[in-house]
Amino acid sequence: MRVLCPPIEPYRVHHLERDDHTLYIEECGNPSGIPILFLHGGPGSGCKPNHRSFFDPALYRIIILDQRGSGRSLPLGSLSQNTTQHLLDDLRFIQNHLDVAQWVLFGGSWGATLALLYAEKYPDLVSGLILRGTFLARNSDLDWFVQESGAQKIYPEAWDLLLKSIPESDHLHPVDYLYEAVTGPDEIAQRRAARAWELWGGQVVLGAAFDPSRLESHVPIEIVHHAQIELHFAVNRYFIKENEILHHIDRVAHLPTAIIHGRKDLVCPVESAWTLHKALPKSTLEILPEAGHIASTEDMIDALIKATDDMASLLAG
Questions:
Q1: pLDDT digits (tens, 9 = 90+) for 32-71
Q2: Exposure winner among 87, 116, 253, 258, fewest CB in 10 A?
Q3: What CATH code is assigned to 12-137+240-316?
Q4: In the chain, what are the domain boundaries?
Q5: pTM above the 0.90 mark?
Q6: What positions carry a catalytic annotation?
Q7: Contact, 44 vs 65, CB < 8 A?
């Protein structure tokens, strides 16, 4: 069973100005290694130090990015000029700034969405894809998470708790209401909406491991900012056309692609990974029978590190 590589520190940190944002980027590992970009999920969650450890630092030039409004990028939680197209343009800017001819894209959940969109837009600038918890950003994918025909059937009590936090409305879907509340001028309403969204999402993502007690007395401002960005992208249907990824999937058919997915993923059901795999006949798909959505379980870590090792061997030729 593979485990995370030992902790490492960046050898270079960048703070790049983009519109009214300052992006945080760090480089770790081998400056002469295979460039690989870590794309975090969310949207809005930001990167963590242990994300560097999915990659062999002797083989990879590891590039870590906090997307607009996330993590150590500033201003935290900003929705100004924060769309999918802005994020894709940021990636192209970063790739050029770092003088990277081609890079591997490693993304989970929303990070997998960005990886696919970027590879479809710039297929010649990408050398491979490693995707966890595939999220294709179709209407059906969002509906699974926020409609009564999806995840609420698994956690009906958590869904009822979410609905009880929202006043009855004849015209607003719960997600629309939460978005208006979490981006509105009332700070108390912001924190209430962020708590409701976090309680629902945390339950679906973590299952039995979710501990709601940390939100009982206080909602940190970081939770509010995360909810603002996540709901901003959700209500705008991720700023892409319906089924856009699959419509253009032929553009990346030539790329080595490893798809890893947990059978028990209740955020992104395994159908999305299977559908993507069928659209990319040269891809590999590993479905982990006991894994869920998160990347921190032993089986998921093992599969992801194997995928990075295999990708390095393939690209080294």
A1: 999 999 999 999 999 999 999 999 999 999 999 999 999 9
A2: 253
A3: 3.40.50.1820
A4: 12-137+240-316, 146-238
A5: yes
A6: 109, 265, 293
A7: no
